Amino acid sequence: MIDKVHVLFVCLGNICRSPTAHGVFERLVRDAGLEQRIAVDSAGTGDWHIGRPPDQRSHRAALERGVDIGHLRARQVTAADFDRYQYILAMDRSNLDALHRLKPEDYRGHLGLFLAFAGDRSGALDEVPDPYHGGDDDFQRVYELIQRASLGLLDHIREAS
Known about the structure:
This protein is α/β, with parallel strands linked by helices. Helices cover 39% and strands 14% of the residues.
């Protein structure tokens, strides 16, 4: 049995989707009293925003629901992340493909699409769309999708532990 489960959320720049997932899931973990058993982080496959805070629109959408992600800073995913994280969850297929190229052959954790944990809660959608070039409604929709998948992921980790 693993003492602590480490979860990494990954999108392109680590300023919209993955920090939102980081904050939402971390809040669910804390509310469930599981912060000693589950650790959460986020990263991007690209290097454009390293060190920058989340996009203001993502921050605002999360704050409206009581989740503050303003303290998070973008970082780029590395091969070393596969040594630490049992769950590496991509927001879309493009990022999943990039992660597969980086993944060591001996990685035994779960590498897949995050929305797979939403089950039937998100309808036919299996990727979290990138809201970066969209409007406030796009950021609200992304938050809702992330919330649904986060609930499913937490249930999955509880059942697997």
